[in-house]
Design goal:
It is built from 2 helices and 8 strands; from the N terminus they run βαββββαβββ. The chain is of the alpha/beta class and about 120 residues long. The protein has one domain: 2,3-Dihydroxybiphenyl 1,2-Dioxygenase, domain 1, CATH 3.10.180.
């Protein structure tokens, strides 16, 4: 039986990634250990792990995570209020597959798409 999935995304700078997810999105660091080149963050029932990739070119990063929520309007409002990087095509809209979605980019251009069933 599969129980969880914890995506691993690249990061160039651990301090910047930690700051973005904790101070902008409300995540918390998972555990008390500080692993060299690795970061584990948690918010509600999800975890996202990050591995150091100092040579990452954000323009060529295709890291993506789809996050389901039951508070899409609140998350979108938070993204707007904090002036997060929402790509031109990433603003909140209804999708033909029955989801209301928006996307934002973290400091390394990892795409976080938030979706709620309608």
């Amino acid at each position: 039986m599969l129980t969880y999935i914890n995506p691993k995304l690249p990061m160039r700078n651990k301090a910047i990634t930690r700051d973005f997810y904790i101070n902008k999105l409300g995540f918390e660091q998972l555990g008390k250990e500080d692993y060299d080149g690795y970061l584990m963050l948690k918010k509600d029932n999800i975890e996202i792990h990050f591995f150091e990739f100092a040579g990452l070119d954000p323009a060529e990063n295709y890291g993506q995570v789809y996050i389901r929520t039951d508070h899409i309007e609140e998350w979108y409002g938070l993204a707007l209020a904090k002036q997060l990087n929402i790509p031109q095509a990433g603003h909140l809209h209804l999708k033909p597959w029955g989801q209301k979605e928006f996307a934002l980019l973290d400091p390394d251009s990892n795409s976080l798409t938030f979706g709620q069933a309608i």
